[in-house]
Amino acid sequence: MEKRSFGSTLDGRPVDLYVLANKAGFEAVITNYGGTLVSLKAPDRNGKIADVILGYDTVAGYENGKSYFGGTIGRYANRMAHAKFTLNGLAYVLAKNDGENHLHGGLIGFNKRIWNARDVSSEQGQSLELTYLSKDGEEGYPGDLSVKVVFTVLADRNALKIEYSATTDRDTVVNLTNHAYFNLAGQGNGDILGHQLILKATKFTPVDTTLIPTGEMADVHSTPFDFLKSVAIGARIEQNNEQLKFGKGYDHNWILDRTTSSDSLADAAQAYEPQSGRMLTISTTEPGIQFYSGNFLDGTIQGKGGKVYQHRSAFCLETQHFPDSPNHPNFPSTILKTGQNYRSTTIYQFSTR
Question: Which among 93, 158, 211, 236 has the fewest CB atoms less than 10 Å away?
Fold first, then answer.
């Protein structure tokens, strides 16, 4: 594994980059600032390598950025209604950083923290272990939460595995994910409306005008949310649909059709870019996946290599528990109790056709 300097934060703390690769040329670059996936390089059908995720060339970009590019998201990924929840009869108040709601862990989420890094490579592939202690009361959450994230570039295939684990000394809520923005044609190379998408989900969670789930679990059939068979992302994104208007496109949680236990991997999504032939297949232990179609990218962000990120020039597929779960008893629980171990695994597999 190659380690190199990524410069320093605004307050002078050193930050590093770690390059994980296999012999086929598949490569992931991660920084310990925010547990952030900085680049992900994969071949097209002709063997040409391209970086397929959005990001910045400097640590300052990630410090100042508000789009969560590639970051490890926590303590609670996605939204929490009215920035509050109740646990064990106690009310907890969080930061309102998305209108009246709480988003992606608050004002200084895990994607804005410096993590401790360690090379834990093995025969499986090159692996980077990142650890962080989120102290009791940080961003309003209870309990000292010890978090570990292990990134592995698999030696035998072009895949990135991310394994999350956590323990707490006090009952708390946890929902961790990675916020990579993908464009399989290469970062900054046009919009993603022609990408073909499959989501292994017959239901999704509709939202209100502030993108908080209503609590309903709605059937996707005969709606623009049906990705059970391969459909272009742009095919129905402009349809006259209330949910699409609320999200300004797709920004919703799909309930994955799991036929296996929650601690085993199951196929969740597949994205295919016809021009390059690149295909991304995602498997996860999580019950949901947030599909976001880059609706708030607006051409004001200059990313890696000077590329300007235009409207819908990337998509996110965030494996997760459902948004606002602590406020919906009918959703899978996100409570982590003292003595329990939080575990979650997601694999991003790249191939071509």
Answer: 93
Residue 250's pLDDT is what? 98
- Average pLDDT (65-70) is 97
pLDDT band at 262; cut points 50, 70, 90: confident
CATH class of 2-352: mainly beta
User: Which positions ≥6 away from 159 have C-beta within 8 Å?
Assistant: 26, 153, 347, 348, 349, 350
Cβ atoms of residues 41 and 22 within 8 Å = no
**Which among 27, 138, 139, 179 is annotated as catalytic?**
179
Q: How far apart are CA 130 and CA 147, in angstroms?
A: 8
CA dihedral for 32, 34, 35, 37, sign (positive or negative)? negative
N- to C-terminal Cα separation, the chain: 29
CA-wise closest residue to 54 among 180, 218, 143: 180
Domain borders along the chain are 2-352
Q: Which residues contact 12 (CB under 8 A, 6 or more apart)?
A: none
Task: Indicate if the pLDDT at residue 261 is higher than 80.
Answer: no
Distance, in Å, from the CA atom of 330 to the CA atom of 253, rounded to the nearest integer, reads 15
Question: What separation in angstroms does the CA of 195 have from each of 119, 189, 210, 246?
Answer: 35, 12, 27, 22
pTM metric for this prediction: 0.98
Among 298, 332, 327, 36, which Cα is nearest to 203's?
332
The answer to whether residue 102 is catalytic is no
Alpha carbons within 13 A on the beta-carbon side of 42? 29
Q: Does the annotation count 129 as an active-site position?
A: no
15, two tokens = 């930050």
